[in-house]
């Protein structure tokens, strides 16, 4: 209970009208209690608004894939872009290390899910399919609303197939097609699924 509420209640307790009307005291106590709750909620709202403003990407900036582009002036983005450079140069281990560090230091960053996807994609490019599978599940569990999830499922299916697990590869492709009918990777996924299903029917 706030200081203002305590002062108001003590003032009411000494007033003749409050002493003569217990119901009034009860109602005023409820009012003061609700006012305190409102103040608490206001502070929570302000705190959330500050966090939102801090993490909010610049409006209207999108990359070629339609994803939001973060302000590159943020110091936290240096490691992300350095990892991409290393990846492009074929330095996969260093790239993964920097991406993992980026996620660790910025778990709620707008690019954290993309960093996780890049780790998955890097392992896949390096033919480390077991690690790619682990990465795909990490992305799904940590960032269930990520726009990269359909691509991660596609990579997961391909990783299973490269590891010779046709059954799980097929199941993953079916899940992708059913869960993300508007995904950009849908045509490729459908084609792969059709090819797998055709091979199953052939003698």
Describe the structure.
The chain has 203 residues and is mostly helical. The chain has helices spanning 3-14, 16-20, 22-55, 77-88, 92-105, 112-125, 129-142, 149-162, 166-179, 186-201. Helix 7 packs antiparallel against helix 8 (149-162) and helix 8 (149-162) packs antiparallel against helix 9. The model is unreliable at 1-18 and 56-66 (pLDDT under 50).
Helices and strands in order:
Elements: H1 3-14, H2 16-20, H3 22-55, H4 77-88, H5 92-105, H6 112-125, H7 129-142, H8 149-162, H9 166-179, H10 186-201
Which features characterize this protein?
mainly alpha; 10 helices; 203 residues; 0% strand; Serine Threonine Protein Phosphatase 5, Tetratricopeptide repeat; 73% helix; single chain
Low-confidence stretches: 1-18, 56-66
The CATH superfamily of the largest domain bears the name Tetratricopeptide repeat domain
Count of individual domains? 2
In angstroms, what separates the terminal alpha carbons? 77 Å
Return the string of H and E elements: HHHHHHHHHH
Strand content: under 5%
Q: Under the CATH scheme, which architecture of the largest domain would be assigned? A: Alpha Horseshoe
Helix fraction bin: over 70%
State the total count of DSSP E strands: 0
Q: What would the principal axes of the Cα set say about the shape?
A: elongated
For this structure, the CATH topology of the largest domain is: Serine Threonine Protein Phosphatase 5, Tetratricopeptide repeat
Largest sheet: none
- CATH class of the largest domain, named Mainly Alpha
Mean pLDDT: 78
- Helices, by number, come to 10
Rg from alpha-carbon coordinates:
27 Å
Classify the secondary structure makeup into a structural class. mainly alpha
